[in-house]
Specification:
- The chain is α+β, with helices and mostly antiparallel strands.
- It is built from 22 helices and 68 strands.
- Strands 1, 2, 3, 4, 5, 6, 7, 8 and 9 form a nine-stranded mixed sheet that branches. Strands 21, 22, 23, 25 and 26 form a five-stranded antiparallel sheet that branches.
- A hairpin with a 2-residue loop joins strand 31 and strand 32.
- Helix 18 packs antiparallel against helix 19.
- The protein is extended and about 135 Å long.
- The termini are far apart.
């Protein structure tokens, strides 16, 4: 024994220190317990009397062999000592027998990493040395030992004898041989020449010495730099060659690993035990009671890196190295005697318990003697983002060697090593090589994505939600011949063996089931295949296979995560077995984003998302009793997870996660139930309940342990919230069941500022407008404003809402004439901010009340909800629908169901029927406190027409389009130029749409509904195949008639139910019962109407309607339909004008301006001060977007032939509603400025929805040239249209004018006779005038200002005539062009002409009246004119003639001609008769929107 070892304590110097005795195990931690009356001195004595020694049963001595003493005890006494003060005694250990090592009480193991009280983990459980990673233990140790002594105890392999080798070149080469001699020679030569010149010039010795000094300084500097650079280059090259050929010993790293291993090994072992126990507990075979990893340590000797070889010649972002590593903890030949004394070998003990409860017995399986050696190649790929290491690839260059001792029976001393069985060791080794070979034996590599791991990329859990809306299936075939087909669908990713992600309800006995369900599928990515398995439910046997439909989710990602109208083929055995109709929308999880400048954009906040709940463990269950427990996780009453049973422990650990889709985390309830597994039956030990938002807040406050109700103990939970922005997805419109609206949202958009300019490259500015999206439906939009980044819309839009979850998206778009509109930004709006949901006290039904309107400036974001550019200013308010207090209609339905199941009614059902009759009394107010208006005092039917504002729902059942071969869709327009709902596109001549859309009706008397059948195309131009138009008043008459019929057939007990259906609708019940769905659909079809489609020969469409009155709403005057329309202006005369000429007269003419823009100019009336304008019948029509706030001004000028025209006076012409009533001509005397001059004008206001032609110009610019002189009279004849406006001429009287709206007459027959319903000034509605019959005066067409335009009797006759219509027909000005109406004709071009000619086109009507002559196009066989003109239709005009002519020397010659029916709109090519070629023309009629299909 050396001197050094002689001075060590016996514990460290013992030759058997490397072995672990059977009777020695890790001791329990000592915890001192004091009674309250004890004094501090008594407590001290108790601690000292029970305190263990430093080395427990083995005395620890100092370096000199003396006992290590405490500062408080004299070392001369032979007593055992403490290392620390009494406050640290709870961490000291004492040895005890292994049979008593397992304590009934939980203890704190030194190191603090042990999991349970019956396990030994880490080297600290087998050594008396404290863990060097615990500061409080090391501080206590330093009080008794010096730093040198501590270093001696913990020392490992010393590296002090290692010295750096500088290499051969660095020692042999001298700086003398470095440098560029020619530089020095040149400098020397220059110095000599300069010295010679200075001498010749008479300079002295001082000048020569100065030159020499400069030369010496330069030489020293240059030679020093040259030597340094050459030396560095040589050393770098030699080092590179050394790396390529030599192995590098990494002693410094081994030294670091040795020190770090003592600290990290206990932590690693604790993590392994915690993870392994949870896995073993879950996968324990049924014939075993439990599997536990009771002992796990890797020992005190760390892995060793023998050498590293680096390959420097790789790619710039690749580091490639060969590592020779070994782990031989049982080899003690390479460690010092000091290390040997504290050495701990690896040991793993797996306890297998057989039997049950008290009858069970444990068998330890021991694994020790581990050894491993391998030669690895590691390839590291780096990149420029944090953590700068992208991937690490590792592979074995040769087969690794390993050894072990496995004793499954008998334990450490009596156990038998299975490797002693002949052939078993080699068999195990070959199996390991066979499994590892394909994974990481060269050339195969094992790849670790470091960047993804450190970035928190989740490769297993859900990263998005797929909203799978399954509508129906068609043509399903029965899989067997036993019973009927009861289909349901279950969803998997990939094969059916993968976990089930969702399941629909089962439809009984149906080969064409309709589910109309939305499943929320949690997905990790969009790279897999979604499989929909249709099953046939069977009772008492396995469900049958009907077929399977698959869908590649990559296609969803390629279509902006939205695919509607999918038809998936169902295959069974490779043969077609039907199809599934569904929609898919994917919503990715919102995550934070790091910008290039380092700023982090947080994830978008949302109450909708994915909740990942982790149940980690429990502790101290039942005050430390050993129980067999498991946990059950319930979310909103649905069981989502049941863990495996963790046996015989008071501290069970499961580490289980469950994910679920949460629609609202503030209302989602979590519940964890801890149960004990017993032979007699499982019992509940304790429960925990909390809302998702409350748990999230608690975890933010670092509260992870929660008390259990019902049992002592705590539960450890974790929650990861993944917000998912699904704004507006859940709505009440569309396919499937229709949800009644709860009200309407009014969104008033004032302005925006700082918008993004997407047209900067073209030198322009964005043309912004705002649209409102509910889900994927565009519900409404404002007009666009040209070239403006700070637009002001000042427009209110209305969107019906059906649920509190139907949030809206406000998106600012840039309008483009040809290409797709671009998004400038969007903002989300949660309607909960303006809607309050409460429960009615008496009926317990939900009541939706309006909160205060929300007005704000909202920042715009992009589609990913990241900050964008610009802000939008809006104000949002809510107005509820009329809703009766909850009646017993549902109870009545239940009674009917009960009576159907029983042959005779029971007393209970009879009582229920009686109660239904007594409860359903007539209600005077709805649940909002609003008065209910009935048809009569004794009627229970609500008088819907009395509610002028409401929500109109339209269900499109089917459309018949003979000969159709393309995909078409139906779109709904209510008082709008833009569709407010679109169906899914379908193909065929008979199309089953089955979709319901709705829109807000602001003014029932003026509102009109248009249903258009349009071609599904990606182009911007809308191709309308057919349409129909209906007035809302006519629709409500039909709805009321149906209610009366239903009421007359029903009993008195069902009268209130019929009344309620008039509000909520008979076909609007939201139910999951498919049979009820079918009944409702059949009932809807019975009440539906088949309407003829215009422009489609034999085309029809079947529709049904419902109306929901809106209460607590007053229409602002500026939003009234009467605030928009056309103003017919007829200048009558002027009087007392100022004389501007020398002859005492003037040559007056009048210029009319609207809002400062010149709109019309009269002819010049020469030499008069009192001009009579009606002599020339000057009348013009002004389209007015907003009547309120508009200013019409008349300016009278004196015409001068040479100089500037002189203003004679001006005056404002009022035409607001309080002065000028709609449809009633009135004459005004306007006082002009500058004297007593007056101007007499006649005005006629006709409310209309003005047409919006989007052609990259202003809203009213529909032609390239203004027409202001279309001949015609004001009334009873044609009128001109002033300014750049839509041709709205035609009969001013008659039907009250037409609104240019969606290709149909705006008011049509619906406006006739409404005066009797409106009362007041609306009683003077114009009667339907026929040609020749008018309220006009003789020949000048001027209305007598004293004559009324209508009478109550005439109005009544109009109503009677309107009611006498046999069938519901749609009226359209497209097929009913009235005489004297202005049409727009466009001559675009020609093609296929025989020769290159100088062509022009002359247009005539069938009455041979010349209408237009185009310009000449020189020398072209394909001339292009692109000219437009407006023309009036005479009573006898039916066709137009387009005659192409060419110029001749003497006279012009005809090339050919074509005729066109002017009563229908047209766009396309017409063949030329009497010649070759075609001409391209377009005919537009007021009231149409690109309404004709292109020919």
């Amino acid at each position: 024994m050396t001197e050094t070892s002689a001075n060590l304590p016996p514990r460290l110097a013992s030759p058997n220190a490397g072995k672990i005795d059977q009777d020695i195990s890790h001791p329990d931690a000592k915890v001192n317990t004091f009674s309250e009356p004890m004094t501090p001195e008594e407590k001290k004595k108790q601690v000292e009397s029970t305190a263990p020694t430093t080395a427990t049963s083995r005395d620890m001595k100092g370096i000199n062999g003396d006992p290590i003493s405490s500062p408080n005890i004299n070392k001369d006494t032979g007593k055992k000592i403490d290392l620390v003060k009494s406050e640290n005694k709870d961490i000291l250990r004492k040895d005890s027998d292994i049979s008593s090592s397992v304590s009934k009480q939980s203890r704190v193991v030194p190191g603090g990493f042990s999991i349970n009280n019956d396990t030994r983990c880490g080297w600290t459980d087998f050594s008396s040395l404290p863990n060097p990673g615990q500061d409080h233990l090391m501080v206590a140790l330093k009080k008794s030992l010096t730093d040198e002594q501590i270093a001696t105890i913990y020392s490992g392999s010393r590296l002090d004898d290692y010295t750096q080798d500088n290499g051969f070149l660095a020692q042999q080469l001298s700086d003398t041989f470095y440098g560029k001699w020619f530089h020095n020679a040149a400098a020397l030569l220059l110095a000599v020449v300069l010295t010679f010149i200075l001498t010749k010039l008479g300079a002295g010795l001082f000048a020569c010495l100065t030159v020499g000094a400069f030369l010496a300084t330069y030489y020293q500097t240059s030679i020093r730099r040259l030597r340094r650079n050459i030396r560095d280059d040589v050393q770098r090259e030699m080092a590179m060659r050394k790396l390529e050929s030599d192995h590098e010993s990494v002693y410094w790293m081994n030294h670091f690993i040795h020190r770090f291993w003592l600290i990290y090994e206990p932590v690693l072992c604790a993590q392994v035990i915690g993870t392994a126990d949870a896995i073993l507990s879950e996968n324990c075979p049924s014939f075993l009671d439990s599997l536990r990893l009771t002992t796990f340590t890797l020992g005190t000797k760390p892995p060793l890196i023998e050498f590293v070889k680096t390959y420097p010649r790789t790619e710039s972002n690749i580091v490639c190295m060969d590592w020779k590593v070994s782990f031989t903890p049982t080899d003690t030949t390479d460690i010092t005697p000091r290390d040997l004394q504290s050495h701990v070998d690896p040991k793993i003990v797996l306890s297998i318990r057989v039997g049950k409860k008290m009858l069970g017995a444990g068998m330890p399986v021991l694994l020790e003697g581990l050894a491993f050696t391998g030669h690895l190649r590691v390839r590291i790929k780096m990149f420029n983002e944090f953590p700068h290491i992208q991937t690490v690839e590792a592979c074995f260059l040769e087969k690794p060697t390993f050894d072990y001792i496995l004793k499954p029976i008998g334990g450490e001393y009596l156990g038998f090593d299975v490797n002693n069985i002949p052939g078993l060791q080699s068999f195990v080794r070959d199996q390991v090589h066979a499994n590892l070979g394909p994974m990481m034996y060269a050339p195969n590599v094992f790849t670790v994505d470091v960047a993804a791991l450190l970035a928190g990329a989740d490769t297993e859990s859900a990263n998005g939600v797929l909203a799978l809306s399954i509508h129906s299936a068609n043509g399903l075939k029965i899989s067997d011949f036993l019973g009927t087909l009861d289909p349901y669908i279950k969803v998997h990713v990939g094969s059916e063996q993968n976990p089930e992600l969702g399941r629909t309800q089962t439809i009984e006995d149906n080969n064409n089931p309709q589910w109309n369900e939305t499943l929320y599928i949690l997905l990790n990515n969009l790279t897999d295949t979604l499989s929909l398995y249709i099953k046939d439910r069977n009772t008492g046997r396995k469900d049958g296979d009907v077929g399977m439909a698959s869908f590649d989710l990559k296609e969803l990602g390629e279509n902006d995560n939205v695919l509607d109208g999918l038809s998936l083929a169902v295959l069974h055995g490779g043969k077609a077995a039907g199809e599934i109709k569904c929609d898919m929308r994917y919503f990715p999880v919102s995550a934070e984003e790091k910008q290039e400048d380092g700023t982090v954009i947080p994830a978008a906040e949302s109450d909708t998302g994915i909740a990942q709940l982790t149940v980690y463990e429990c502790k101290d269950l039942g005050s430390g009793k050993k129980l067999d427990t498991y946990a059950v996780v319930t979310i909103d009453g649905q069981e989502k997870l049941t863990t495996s049973t963790y046996k015989r422990s008071a501290n069970p650990r499961w580490d289980k996660k469950v994910e679920t889709f949460v629609t609202d985390k503030s209302k989602t309830k979590l519940e964890v139930t801890i149960k004990e597994s017993q032979l007699a039956g499982d019992i509940v030990l304790g429960t925990w309940k909390m809302m998702v938002c409350e748990l999230e807040k608690a975890l933010e406050d670092n509260k992870e342990w929660f008390n259990l109700d019902g049992i002592a103990g705590k539960l450890h939970l974790g929650l990861k919230w993944k917000p998912t922005v699904m704004t507006g997805f859940v709505g009440g419109i569309g396919r499937g069941t229709y949800r009644p609206p709860i009200g309407v949202i009014r969104a008033h958009f004032y302005r925006a500022k700082g918008l993004r300019n997407v047209e900067a490259l073209t030198g322009g500015k964005s043309d912004p407008y705002v649209r409102i999206l509910s889900g994927m439906q565009i519900r409404d939009q404002t007009d666009y404003i040209l070239d403006e980044l700070d637009p002001e819309w000042d427009t209110a839009l209305y969107v019906p809402v059906h649920s509190l979850r139907e949030d809206l998206v406000f998106e600012v778009m840039d309008y483009n004439e040809v290409s797709k509109d671009k998004s400038l930004g969007l903002c989300d709006f949660s309607i909960k901010q303006v809607i309050k949901e409460s429960i009615h006290e008496e009926t317990q039904q939900k009541v939706y009340e309006a909160l205060e309107p929300v007005e704000r400036w909202a920042d715009l974001t992009n589609a990913q909800r990241k900050p964008g550019k610009g802000k939008v200013h809006y104000k949002i308010s809510f107005h509820p629908t009329l809703e009766l207090a909850k009646s017993s209609a549902d109870d009545e339905k239940k009674v009917k169901e009960q009576t159907q199941d029983k042959t005779s009614p029971t007393p209970e059902t009879a009582d229920a029927t009686t109660e239904a009759t007594t409860i359903n009394k007539r209600q005077e107010k709805d649940i909002h406190g609003e008065d209910i208006i009935y048809e009569s005092p004794d009627s229970d039917i609500i008088n819907l027409p009395k509610y002028t504002s409401g929500i109109l729902s339209v269900k499109v059942h089917e459309a018949k389009i003979p000969g159709n071969t393309c995909k078409v869709l139906a779109q709904l327009l209510v008082d709008s130029n833009d569709p407010q709902y679109k169906t899914l596109p379908q193909k065929g001549s008979t199309i089953e749409f089955g979709e319901t859309g709705d829109a807000f009706v602001k003014e029932l008397d003026f509102s009109n509904v248009v249903i258009q059948i349009v071609k599904d195309t990606q182009k911007k131009d809308v191709v309308i195949l057919g349409h129909c138009s209906l007035s809302v008043s006519k629709i409500l008459e039909m709805v009321m008639d149906q209610q009366r019929k239903s009421n007359s057939k029903s009993s008195s007990a069902a009268s209130s139910s019929a009344s309620n259906r008039s509000i909520r609708g008979e076909s609007i019940t939201v139910t999951n019962n498919n049979n009820n769905n079918n009944d409702d659909n059949d009932k809807e079809k019975e009440n539906s109407q088949e309407i003829k489609l215009l422009n489609i020969d034999g085309g029809t469409i079947r529709l049904s309607f419902n109306y929901f009155p809106v209460v607590q709403y007053i229409l602002p005057p500026e939003e009234s339909m009467e605030n928009q329309g056309t103003l017919t202006v007829t200048p009558v005369s002027a009087s007392h004008l100022r004389a501007a000429d020398r002859n005492g007269k003037s040559d007056p003419f009048v210029v009319f301006t609207l809002n400062g823009e010149k709109m019309y100019k009269t002819d010049v009336y020469k030499k008069t001060l009192n001009p009579e304008f009606n002599v020339k019948k000057e009348t013009f029509v002004l389209p007015v977007q907003r009547r309120i706030g508009s200013t019409l001004e008349a300016i009278v000028y004196d015409w001068d032939q040479l100089g500037n025209n002189e203003e004679l006076g001006r005056g404002n012409i009022p035409f607001t509603g309080d002065i000028l009533e709609s449809f009633e001509a009135k004459q005004f005397d306007i006082h002009l400025t500058g004297g007593e001059s007056t101007l007499k004008v006649r005005l006629l206001w006709q409310p209309q929805l003005l047409k919006r032609e989007r052609q990259g110009t202003s809203l009213l610019n529909t032609t390239t040239k203004a027409f202001t002189a279309v001949p015609g009279a004001a009334l009873g004849a044609g009128v001109s249209l002033a300014g750049d406006a839509v041709g709205l001429g035609g009969k001013v009287l008659g039907t009250g004018g037409k609104a240019v709206f969606g290709g149909v007459g705006k008011f049509g027959s619906g406006i006739r006779g409404i005066g009797s319903r409106l009362g007041g000034h609306r009683s003077s509605v114009v009667q339907d005038a026929s040609p020749g019959g008018a309220v006009v005066s003789g020949g000048n067409g001027i209305v007598d200002e004293t004559a009324h335009l209508g009478s109550p009797n005439n109005n009544k006759s109009n109503l009677d005539r309107k009611k006498s219509i046999d069938s519901l027909q749609s009226s359209s000005n497209m097929s009913m062009i009235r005489p004297n109406e202005a049409i727009k004709v466009s001559i675009i071009g020609a093609r296929g002409l025989k020769d290159t000619l100088d062509c022009y086109v002359r247009v005539k009507s069938n009455s041979k009246h010349s209408l237009y002559k185009s310009k000449h196009i020189k020398k072209s066989a394909t001339p292009e004119w692109n000219e437009s003109f407006m023309a009036n239709i005479k009573p006898n005009d039916k066709t137009l003639e387009f005659r192409v002519r060419t110029r001749g020397t003497i006279t012009d010659h005809d090339v050919g001609f074509a005729t066109l029916d002017m009563t229908q709109p047209f766009e396309g090519w017409l063949p030329l008769s009497e010649g070759a070629g075609e001409i391209n023309v377009r005919l537009d009629i007021p009231g149409t929107r690109s309404s004709s299909p292109k020919q």
